[in-house]
Write a structure and sequence with these properties.
heterodimer; A: alpha/beta; Rossmann fold; 2 domains; six-stranded mixed β-sheet; five-stranded parallel β-sheet; 18 helices; B: alpha+beta; SH3 type barrels; five-stranded antiparallel β-sheet; 3 helices; 5 strands
């Protein structure tokens, strides 16, 4: 198709790959924090194409994957209640909780409905005043404006039987947590284009300055990603560390101001656990006190529920970039998209599912070994 | 849920003070909240929609290109939900599937 060609042209891609390889005098380690970018990188084999110039580490860019186990368990408890209609984005239905998933709760008689928009859940609450309608408000900054509006409208319209189970996370604190880790290897970031469409990139400027890492706001098509990588490598080679915008056709520095404003009006920052990673200070959004009556955890007395995560799933190492999905001993055997141990194998934005679906595990293994030996021989 | 889906605004309406509109996603039409782009939107414009909310305006070429890309990435699951909900309103997704 004509309109695809510009951002998928193999000639342009080859030229960019060549330029990246010519620019890099050593092998740089970059992290993308967007499940859509991970998907493109794995599917197109961009990591392999870049050879010794760049190693791509896949960061915690999948909102489904980082939703903590205890929030899933709270969702399961709410969905099982006879007085509750539990509503959720479809992505969350197969994420394993401690005992089961939302689909299984539904099979056992719980009422679980998939909605496209949180406003659909609000409409459902208005249509069923005799029921409690709970919406599972998950996601990064891309879904926060929608969820903020649903709560804002519920208060404005007076819908007391609507509430939200909030599990919102924000990207910049996770980047800080990765950079703060003693064994961090990340030298530059590709920031998620669609998150920045909402938020702009002002939050990334202090991170780039403090940690001296280049951050490139990047789209999710193959040429976008290669261009983002080139802009990062050029900075690394020049010893610069700025926030630059590759995704100029969609992102401005300020983002979508009305959306940011309502998110700030409805939510405040709080510490939040990330599945597999643990608590990251200031990385979550919770409802402000004025909206407390719409907080499902308070309404149903679930605030104190805490859960230990099982040891077998190594999603945390994958989400932090310490382990490539195919290097996990359960990958493709005890853990598959049909029988997932952890969320990264469930979600289409998860790194494990991307590796599994694109058959990267065998090839990836071989390449990883050859890379290691190549790096070793240079030392 | 993180990748926005581009579509074309085909109708505008006011829902008790909230700007809503009908957006066409490659033939599937769906009610979308336009409040966040209300200052800058008209019928015929293309918008990027996240979970039922238009977050930004885009030009037509960009909209068509990223739509095709999303289709290829199998990232259009949300459209299947939309298809279910667009005509029949809300109903149990289990019945729908």
């Amino acid at each position: 198709m004509r309109y695809l060609s510009e951002y998928r042209d193999p000639e342009v891609a080859r030229a960019l790959v060549r330029q990246i390889r010519e620019t890099a005098t050593r092998r740089w380690v970059l992290m993308e924090v967007c499940g859509g970018q991970t998907h493109t990188i794995v599917k197109q084999g961009l990591g392999e194409l870049l050879g010794d110039a760049v190693e791509m580490i896949h960061g915690p860019g999948c909102p489904v994957c980082v939703t903590p186990l205890e929030q899933i368990d709270k969702a399961l408890a709410l969905a099982a209640r006879p007085d509750v209609i539990f509503t959720s984005f479809g992505d969350m239905l197969r994420v394993p909780g401690s005992d089961c998933d939302l689909q299984q709760v539904r099979a056992r008689g719980g009422t679980v409905r998939v909605v496209y928009s949180p406003l659909d859940a609000l409409a459902l609450a208005q249509a069923h005043p005799d029921k409690e309608v709970v919406f599972f408000a998950v996601g990064f900054e891309t879904t926060a404006p929608a969820n903020a509006m649903a709560v804002y409208r519920a208060r404005e319209l007076g819908v007391p039987n609507f509430s939200v189970l909030v599990s919102h996370v924000t990207v910049p604190p996770a980047m800080r947590a990765i950079l703060d880790a003693p064994d961090n290897r990340v030298q530059a970031f590709l920031a998620a284009g669609h998150v920045c469409t909402v938020m702009g990139w002002t939050e990334y400027e202090p991170i780039a300055a403090q940690y001296q890492v280049p951050i490139v706001v990047t789209g999710f098509e193959p040429i976008d990603i290669l261009e983002g990588i080139l802009l990062a490598v050029q900075q690394l080679e020049a010893g610069r560390h700025e926030v630059v915008n590759q995704y100029v056709r969609a992102v401005t520095r300020e983002g979508t101001v009305p959306a940011r404003t309502l998110v700030e009006q409805v939510f405040r920052l709080a510490d939040r656990k990330w599945r597999g990673i643990g608590e990251i200070p200031g990385s979550g959004l919770v409802l402000r006190e004025e909206y407390a009556s719409f907080d499902a955890e308070r309404k149903f007395g679930l605030e104190d529920l805490t859960v230990e995560e099982p040891a077998e799933c190594r999603a945390g190492d994958v989400l932090r970039g310490r382990l490539k999905p195919h290097q996990c001993s359960a990958f493709g055997t005890r853990c598959t998209p049909e029988h997932p141990l952890g969320a990264p194998m469930v979600s289409s934005e998860g790194a494990c599912a991307a590796y599994y679906n694109y058959g990267r595990y065998r090839e990836g293994e071989a390449l990883a070994m050859s890379r290691e030996s190549a790096v070793g021989s240079r030392q | 849920m993180c990748l926005g889906i581009p579509g074309r605004v085909v109708a505008l309406r006011d829902d008790a003070g909230l700007m809503m509109g009908t957006v066409d996603f490659g033939g599937v039409r769906r009610e979308v909240c336009l409040a966040y782009v209300a200052h800058d939107i008209d019928i015929g414009d293309y918008v990027v929609v996240h979970v039922g909310f238009a977050i930004s305006k885009v030009d037509e070429d960009e909209a068509k290109r990223s739509y095709a890309m999303l289709r290829e990435m199998s990232q259009l699951d949300e459209l299947d939900w939309m298809r279910e909900f667009a005509d029949t309103g809300l109903r149990d997704a289990q019945q729908a599937s």
